[in-house]
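To the structural biology subgroup,

Please find below the input and predicted structure for Thioredoxin-like protein, which we are adding to the shared reference set this quarter. The sequence is reproduced verbatim from the submission form. If anyone notices a discrepancy with their own records, reply to this email rather than editing the shared folder directly, so we keep one authoritative version.
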Amino acid sequence: MKEVIDSSLKKGISYTEYRDLVSDLLREQKSTGPNQSEALYNYSLLNDRRMKRLDKTSKLTEETIENVKKISQPQTWLVLTEGWCGDAAQNLPVLNKIAEENENVDLKLVLRDENLELMDVFLTNGGRSIPKLIALDENKNVLFTWGPRPSVATKMITDYKEQNGMVDAKIKEDLQRWYNKDKGINVQEDLISLLSN
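Predicted structure (tokenized):
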């Protein structure tokens, strides 16, 4: 597993580089990943706007800042993502703000579809769900993982799937409304809980 992590870390880019990559591809009417379609391009366009807004408006709680400042040893937060992923667009700006609070945290992003070997080590219920954060210590040992959604959103999706058998347009709309109301608080709570373990 360490070789897989090593290989992906070498391809890791900063949050700013990721935002630039997504924007550059959009100018060419493309999305990230090997599959190109009008739908993926449109999702990416919407997500780019979301991320711009969240970069400006996301706020961290005092509790989050306090807990992140306690990280005393270097960590790399390696995140699998893609520009067309709605959950990534909602959570990456918040994860980036959290990482910026402590110089011991190095946030690195890699594209899922270029790192399937890594993705397949960190599946969620057998699926290649993103975003997926893999926190690593200096020796590249896994400290914790998080994703693909904050815990409350995960429960919403799980409950809906149990009742309706699938994820459809209605739950996707409900999820977006939830993200807009939550304003990144639940992802902060999840991270605080993982950091204090």
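Summary notes: The mean pLDDT is 96. The radius of gyration is 16 Å.

Regards,
Lab coordination
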